[in-house]
Amino acid sequence: MREISKEEFKKSIIENVKNQYRRTIDEATPQQIFQAVSYAIKDVIIDDWIATQKQFDETGAKKVYYLSMEFLMGRALGNNIINLGAKKAVKEALEELGFDLNAIEDQEPDPALGNGGLGRLAACFLDSLATLGYPAYGCGIRYHYGMFKQKIQDGYQVEVPDEWLKNGYPFELRRPEYATEVKFGGYVKTEWDGERNHFVQEGYQSVLAVPYDMPIVGYGNNVVNTLRIWDAQPIDTFSLSAFDKGDYQKAVEQENLAKNLVEVLYPNDNHYAGKELRLKQQYFFISASLQVALKKFKETNDDIHKLPEKIVFQMNDTHPTVAVAELMRLLLDQEGLNWDEAWGITTKCCAYTNHTIMAEALEKWPIELFSRLLPRVYQIVEEINRRFLIEVQNKYPNNYEKVKKMAIIFDGQVKMAHLAIVAGYSVNGVAKLHTEILKNQELKDFYEMMPEKFNNKTNGITQRRFLLHGNPLLADWITEQIGDEWITDLPHLAKLKVYVDDPKFQQEFMNIKYQNKLRLAKYIKEHNGIDVDPRSIFDVQVKRLHEYKRQLLNILHVMYLYNQLKDNPNMDMVPRTFIFGAKAAAGYQIAKKTIKLINSVADVINNDKSINGKLKVVFIEDYRVSNAELIFAAADVSEQISTASKEASGTGNMKFMLNGALTLGTMDGANVEIVEEVGKENAFIFGLSADEVINYENNGGYNPEEIFNTDQDIRRVLMQLINGYYSPQDPELFRDIYNSLLNTKNSAKADTYFILKDFRSYAEAQRRVEAAYRDENWWARAAMLNTASAGKFSSDRTIEEYVRDIWHLEKIHVDDDDVKAL
Ligand SMILES: *Cc1c(COP(=O)(O)O)cnc(C)c1O
């Protein structure tokens, strides 16, 4: 790692302030200082970036293109400083100039180009790829407005546009030299040249895709990879020629297309909305990414058949799946290959990651829309489907059920998951349980026909952001005890296990937790105006708001606890702070109502003096990567309470574990593997198993009314949803939530997420949490064991598995001399 000179860095900041803003350092605003510091950091990064790209070219190394509609990056400045090994120098330089690094970092907007877990996974993967030295590009979209900012007004979520580009983003680099045309609509003309057909798209509209590159800095290795996000620009801005030809209308339409295309990120997590603009976004960034990838390949390779030796496209969910047809199109129509050659290459270049089995999340585009927007691509999908169905019929003669279930195009729709599976050479799930459900239930037919494609890659998270950056006190303490190898080799944390029974280490560990709880309490005081007791149990559920994640189970249990306290104010109880953070998709009514319920319950409980502050409920506004870092560090209890079988993996669960929180969860997603690592006795597991849930589902659900009729405590809580207990002005306010649990007209459709079914088991697990917390030594030991056992959940491990089983990349090395030689 190269040394960064403090003095040079100071000079660089001062120069930047002067050149950019014509100000001296003491006249500059905090935002201007942030910009100046970021440009100074970017200056350092650029040399490594160039040297890395030189290594790519010289070695001709194979690259992975990670195709994703979402990259939930979080702030870059702090992370880049750490990965450059410049924290000490920068911190001191800033202090000498009279600034606090944390305050400067707080000036950066969170680039929130993603919804939740899927987008954050992509960001963690980029960090790991760079740190491990693998050649990689992230390919995505430069949304002008990322994930909306959430305001809470009168307890309701209000969505506010996220203007992250307002002040200019210092870490991006516009690359007009790679601008590429992307075409939509029109029709396909077939031209016979005496030897073969040529397919030409005519009457189309097009936009110019312009890439912006962001550096992805590896930790301490001089490697800088690239996240390339595409912006759209009109191709023919009212050029006179278009005007003269009477194409005024078309010029206006193209201008509008470019304007709308990359305007906003769709705020749905795990939900398919079927919007035309969304399909346009998908094709836009895929076509641009693939065109440039092929062009780059051809600069140094003369045989297109060797493409699979140099390039792999990893599709993050089905959102980028149009890539397989676009690659076919480029190979057939541009490179002039025949079908079999093109198919041979495509099926060696594309791999697919499945993120969900939930029906409402599966992408199925109406043929009408798909073929109108992408006429040539649709022809190719039809041909892929035709050939695939012949294979199905050969394997299963006279079995129309198989055709129905497996067809790519069926019933007027294009099924993107089927296309991804058929054209990809790898299909991976994201946790062991999830992959087993894929193989044995959801994708059983495909698994039986092509078992060799299926594999598991349990998700991971980067410890550089979620421990080293987010929890510096714990990071430093760990390094003091066992050295710093854990930063690039997380399983080293297991060395902490020898200390878990030592009271001195237990106390130090829990004291750091306490300091982090103070830090979060301060944030809560500033943002919510609520005083929370840092000695209370910090019981946290932060994640997207979704029925399957069951924030409702959590808040119903809070209501139940509050009832107990009201009945018995002297009840002996460890004080508890229930912390929530969650954005709901803007159109997801029941989810938004759940946010209102949490805030209404919080209002009543937090203002009830009679319970002596034993219970507090906090809803943290605008949950995002930057406040997530504070929250994980301060958590005692990690709520991972999804309906078993619904959460493919979860990654929040891993961040909590790494920071020494104990999991309260169902046997779902990666919780299963967390418990495998830390031991069931150091977590609190409850509820139906995935098999039990699936069994109920296959047999028409269960009857929640039985529980309502027989369990007084549950009935009381449910009645409080409709008797105005938490909404005196509008007793009907939470009727829809009540109905979702107990729709008396159709009990099979009631409580489809098994909230009442799991309630008693959850309440009992919560009692175990409380009992365990009373034993300080036990809790400290278990918390330390959680951190010490988190080694498996580094995204470094996940990436090494992708490389070994799917991508087959070689590491590159960028020496200090390579950088100096520039
Ligand atoms: C990790 C993370 C998520 C995913 O959380 P889950 O609990 O796995 O759903 C979502 N949002 C942010 C900001 C995250 O950091």
TrEMBL record:
The modification N6-(pyridoxal phosphate)lysine is found at K655. InterPro entries: Glycg_phsphrylas, Glyco_trans_35, Pyridoxal_P_attach_site. One of its GO terms (biological process) is glycogen catabolic process. It comes from the Bacteria. Its cofactor is pyridoxal 5'-phosphate. It is an enzyme of class 2 (transferase). It catalyses: [(1->4)-alpha-D-glucosyl](n) + phosphate = [(1->4)-alpha-D-glucosyl](n-1) + alpha-D-glucose 1-phosphate. Its EC number is 2.4.1.1. Keywords: Allosteric enzyme, Carbohydrate metabolism, Glycosyltransferase, Pyridoxal phosphate, Transferase. One of its GO terms (molecular function) is glycogen phosphorylase activity. SUPFAM superfamilies: UDP-Glycosyltransferase/glycogen phosphorylase (SSF53756). GO terms for cellular component: cytoplasm. The keyword Glycosyltransferase applies. It holds the Pfam family Phosphorylase. Signal peptide: none annotated. Belongs to the glycogen phosphorylase family. Allosteric enzyme that catalyzes the rate-limiting step in glycogen catabolism, the phosphorolytic cleavage of glycogen to produce glucose-1-phosphate, and plays a central role in maintaining cellular and organismal glucose homeostasis. Phosphorylase is an important allosteric enzyme in carbohydrate metabolism. Enzymes from different sources differ in their regulatory mechanisms and in their natural substrates. However, all known phosphorylases share catalytic and structural properties. NCBIfam families: P_ylase. This is Alpha-1,4 glucan phosphorylase. It comes from Clostridium fessum.
